[in-house]
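Protocol step 4 of 6: record predicted structures for both targets in the notebook before any analysis. Target 1:
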Amino acid sequence: MINRTLVRTRVIQNLYAYYKDGDCTPLTAKKQLLKSFSDTYSLYFLLLSLVDEVTRYAEEQMNEAAARAKATHTSYEPNKRFIHNKFAMQLFNNHTLRSYTADKLLSWDAGHNAVIAVYKELIASPFYEEYMALPSASYEDDKRLWRRIFQRIVAESEQVESALEELEVVHNAQNWSTDMQIVVSYVIKTIKQFDEAKMDDMPLLEMFDTEDELTFAKDLLRLSIEHHDEYMDLIHTHLKNWDAERIAYMDGIIMQVALTEILNFQEIPLEISMNEYIELSKEYSSDKSYMFINGILNNILHEKKESNSLFKTVR
């Protein structure tokens, strides 16, 4: 689930905190990095559990409407297709989801307003009306509905984002609101992969696709710390008419981690490493920082190539 792009982001964020906190040790930084991955994985399960939360709220609304109809002696024949959605019922019974959420005590109690907001937007949507009007709904129809809910409602919901900010505090987690978009994409991927025949034992995504991703993360952090002075000196020698003290702190961190990857992970093609860190600089630095970072890194790499000291896969 957690890919190298997210690994690079987390390493940069953790290094920023590491250097800002003078008392932080490399071991503490490593623990914080691993916790950040665990937090992202917990968000994946929390968002999956939103399926049951919205379904249960819909059932509560239906029961209340039935009670009002009974009290006023009016006719009420609810369409129960949504609350009997086969995918939602399968997910609710999923052993991995139930075990993980129970172990981590994950819940939407502190973010229930977001559940209500998602439901209200859902029942007002054309795709919900279309789903409820089908002559009959297949398992694939049920999955398609939930993919659309996450794509068109959850991913764009300010209420969900706000709720995640509150839930971060409740669950002592980080980056939930900022990670929402990418983790929603993982949820959508999971829904697509669901197989009705696998019933309660349908596998969910692992935290890392392979052990290589975790090894890469730990090595990238460790080597960045170990080579900090060396790489920062290298950066400073290539500034050319630019005062080192004027470099934005985050720009320095991004260049340092980029050099760590480029000079120590020969199997990763050079253009991939460069593109990844330029994109990260666009997200985490000032508007024109990416041009500055690109220029400095290219000057360093040109020198390394000239001296035949850059051993890198090129694709």
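Target 2:
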Amino acid sequence: MVTQRTQGLYRVFLLCQIVLVAVLFWFGVWVMVTFYSPGAELTWRRYSIYCGLLVLGMTVESLVRDGSKNYFLQNELLRQHRLSMRQVFASIGTLVLYLIATKDAFISRIFFFNFVPWLYVALLFSHHYLPSFLARRIFTGAREEKTLLVGSTEKAAQLRGWLRRKADIGLRTVGLVCDEQIEKTADGIPVLGNSDELEKIIVERGITQIIMLEFPLFTEINRQIISVCDHLGVRLLIVSDLEEKLRHPVTHFEDDGFRFIGLREEPLENPLNRCFKRAIDVTISLPVILFIFPVLTAIVWLAQRLQSPGPLFHVQTRAGMQNRQFKIYKFRTMRPDHAEEGRQAQAGDERVYPLGKWFRKLSIDEVPQFWNVLRGDMSIVGPRPHLIEHNKQFSQLMANYHVRAFVKPGITGLAQVRGFRGEARNSADIENRVACDIEYLENWNLSLECGIILRTFVHLIVPPRTAY
């Protein structure tokens, strides 16, 4: 998770730098043409080529840069100066090579030599201020991770600088769990209790992430902490210099000089990936709400008036990302007078009015959830959100059930397109769905996202047997 956030922020930062260079270039061209060469003509084609070469140089420099992204959040002026100089030489060098190769003498030398120092100053300021500015805007609110440290005060002190730097990407240290009889560490981190009180502390403090500062000596303690984190849907990172088996799939990564072991990769912790996913959500949901939803509303309303008068929508409280509750909207397909809210729908369910069965089979009842997608409560693709009581019931069957809450719930998902939908009759049904949900969050990419959406459209045309 930390690596995904850092790498994603680094790419957003580079993108902003490229935009900054392009804006600065065109501003300089405008100043030159307007104030210093009032009779000159702005040749868009030539200056567009020059601007593109500057951007190309910046991009190539970022691709060949070795390890700089691990430290771009550190405010070291000397390092920022060196990076700015590298970028200036790369971008201006690319442009100069082009001018020499093509014998292009069109560009103004006065403009050129005035632009170079301003480019350096702009890049230097962007290195100093832009990363922390972007981090504060991206990793706030729901994206802030309440982090609990588990281990000794000595290990916590070693991690002091890293924790301070990672506060910029949303890691807020809530406290420390250790067996030492003190109220707080020398750095002011409050000691909240000992390892026996871990589960209680997580629930009371709303902890979303745990960092184990060292491997415990007893493997049973390892398994207990992993079990608690999976059961409560809490991320677990382990500061480690050992290759040790935890009886659980793990991922190894290094960040800012420290080595960690996490339980899984999470591509959607990358802000660029989230941006692409959100763009897909809005691109699909907006036309559905504007053009398809009104027509279906009229059809469903008429069917209800004829067969089951009552409210048009069925509104329920569901568990969303990080198990935060939200109101989900569906077209009502059951009779309004039944009192079995928590019972799962079954084939031939007597509560469903006749046309409601077709609405459910064709997934028409799910269309109002596109409004939930636009609101940001849900996504097009993700784990299906369950009732709160079903969440409690299913979490008793699977220790890692709440891991699926690391991402937004969806209208459709990997489990649904693989046929795991409808009533969950036994623990195997739940295990299959949760396995698909975890596979999705660990392996997310654009092709997987688009593939699930396309397969969902196929299921709308040819509904599977489990659709009822």
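Step 5 preliminary note on target 2. The chain is about 50% helix and 10% strand. The chain has a mean pLDDT of 85.
Proceed to step 6 after PI sign-off.
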